[in-house]
Amino acid sequence: MVLLSNIQTLPYSCFNNYTFYRSQWQSQRGCVGIGIRCGIAEPSGEPAPLGQKTKYNDGLFEKAFMTLFARKMEKFGASKKESDEKKKGWFDYDYDSFVDVSRKVMQGRSRLQQQQVVREVLMSMLPPGAPAQFRKLFPPTKWAAEFNAAITVPFFFWLVGPSEVVEVEVDGVKQKSGVHIKKCRYLENSGCVGMCVNMCKIPTQDFFTNEFGLPLTMNPNFEDMSCEMVYGQVPPPFEEDPVSKQPCYADICTIANPNSIVCPKLSAN
């Protein structure tokens, strides 16, 4: 989930399919909070109710990012036969293809190995020295946390669906460095607790906290598939995180083990 280095290269036309809602955010500092409604095809304009799969209208902008991530991950999850086959074109990938690649990466790998793959993918998308530059531009301050929360909303709707900046409390200080994801598209489409934790939550937290030096905690809600991201908050050790004890989605996950108390993919082995 790291695209800050590429933000300035994105054409304005990429945003033609979205409606921007601007609200006052810390007027004394001249900041503006931004909310974006994703390209959802649902009549309500909101994610579908739990148990139903949300329909999206993905354009070239979204498919470009799906392809970029999928191609980076494919070398870790593709079989030799698949690797020898002709690669898909830039706009031949859709969200299901992206999720399928993620699922293949999980196969035969431990929790820690899965997380390492995601780290390598993220690192491969950054120019040399990017983490050091990020640390200079965004030291772990309230402003940096709030800025990154605001950036997350418009640039990651393709991955997680619509979200909004919310006020949170970090170390006793209230700040708008939280991002509420209404219904995570990745979790909804994968239906897999292990993929959510190993391929998104933990590696993203670790990347921002350890590589970029800006703490980030992600709190997925497996009851309604929403998620809260809190920039500026140090994540707990995995063993102390509630997700470490989360069972499978027995009815919707294709690789679920209904007899296991905890999702098997959360095991260190």
Molecular shape: globular
Separation of the first and last Cα atoms: 25 Å
Mean pLDDT: 83
What's the story with the biggest beta sheet? 4 strands, antiparallel
pLDDT < 50 stretches: 1-38
Broad structural category: alpha+beta
* Radius of gyration, taken over Cα atoms and rounded to an integer in Å: 18 Å
Strands of the widest sheet, in order across it, are 3-4-6-5
Number of helices: 9
Care to count the β-strands?
6
Helix content: 25-40%
> DSSP strand (E) fraction?
15-25%
N-to-C SSE string, H for helix and E for strand: EEHHHHHHHEEHHEE
Task: Please give a structural write-up.
By secondary structure, this protein is an alpha+beta fold. Helices cover 37% and strands 15% of the residues. It has nine helices and six strands; from the N terminus they run ββαααααααββααββ. The strands form two sheets. A four-stranded antiparallel β-sheet has the order 3-4-6-5. Strand 1 and strand 2 form a beta hairpin. The longest helix is centred in the C-terminal third of the chain and has 19 residues. The chain is globular, with a radius of gyration of 18 Å. 36% of the residues are buried. The N terminus is likely disordered. It comes from Datura stramonium. This is Beta-carotene isomerase D27-like C-terminal domain-containing protein. InterPro entries: D27-like, D27-like_C.
